[in-house]
């Protein structure tokens, strides 16, 4: 765990020194157990980072369920259409919706999917990412170059680890946890 924290601190230092990251490129997701700080990567996926920030600034991610959570893999959220647990939650449809904004073209990179990475969810069409994203519990090399990386957890991964898991077969979660509030650092 100390290695992860050391790596994250080093990443923040390097990004800060090169001017590639700023406070405005940090996302905070408040979970029931505490805050999760994510360093967004606008140099890797500028359109996707812009989308996440736009939706967060509008409050669209507040109260959105973690509708698909697979032990040893990832926790998926961000369905702003059907996943809002405080406004029109449709558990049977959560995971099938997005925002009213157009889908985004893929921004694949060489950044690997490792523990704590935030990636954009999509359908079979690589250019279908919209609002949904996932946080990796463990490395997922099979996703490398196939999904867009938008950021990495730099603190609070212990709170991500406490997100309620779903069914082993599908990851579908009954009475799911949610993102209580999502904000962009100013």
Characterization of the model:
This protein is an alpha+beta fold and 186 residues long. The protein is 18% helix and 23% strand. Strand 4 (68-70) and strand 5 (74-77) form a beta hairpin. It starts with a helix and ends with a strand.
Which structural class fits the helix and strand makeup?
alpha+beta
Q: How would you sum up the major sheet?
A: 8 strands, antiparallel
N/C terminus separation: 29 Å
Shape: globular
> Looking at the chains present, what oligomeric state does this protein adopt?
single chain
Fraction in beta strands: 15-25%
Residues in helix, %: 10-25%
In short:
The chain has helices at 2-18, 46-57, 157-160, and strands at 26-31, 34-40, 64-65, 68-70, 74-77, 117-120, 133-136, 149-155, 178-179, 181-184. With 186 residues, it is an alpha+beta fold. The chain is globular and about 35 Å long.
What characteristics describe this protein?
186 residues, alpha+beta, 23% strand, globular, disordered N terminus
Question: What is the element layout, followed by pairings?
Answer:
Layout: H1 2-18, E1 26-31, E2 34-40, H2 46-57, E3 64-65, E4 68-70, E5 74-77, E6 117-120, E7 133-136, E8 149-155, H3 157-160, E9 178-179, E10 181-184
Antiparallel strand pairs: 1-2, 1-10, 2-8, 3-9, 4-5, 5-7, 6-7, 6-8
């Amino acid at each position: 765990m100390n290695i992860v924290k050391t790596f994250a601190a080093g990443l923040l230092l390097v990004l800060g020194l090169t001017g590639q990251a700023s406070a405005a490129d940090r996302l905070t997701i408040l979970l029931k157990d505490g805050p999760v700080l994510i360093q967004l990567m606008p140099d890797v996926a500028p359109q996707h980072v812009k989308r996440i920030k736009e939706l967060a600034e509008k409050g669209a991610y507040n109260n959105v369920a973690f509708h698909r959570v697979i032990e040893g893999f990832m926790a998926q959220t961000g369905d702003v259409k059907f996943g809002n647990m405080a406004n029109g939650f449709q558990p049977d449809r959560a995971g099938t919706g997005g925002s009213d904004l157009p889908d985004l073209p893929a921004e694949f990179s060489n950044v690997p999917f490792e523990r704590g990475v935030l990636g954009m969810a999509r359908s079979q069409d690589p250019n279908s990412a919209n609002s949904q994203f996932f946080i990796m519990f463990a490395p997922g090399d099979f996703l490398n170059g196939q999904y867009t990386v938008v950021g990495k957890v730099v603190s609070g991964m212990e709170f991500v680890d406490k997100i309620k898991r779903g069914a082993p077969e599908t990851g579908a979660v009954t009475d799911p946890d949610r993102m209580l509030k999502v904000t962009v650092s100013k």
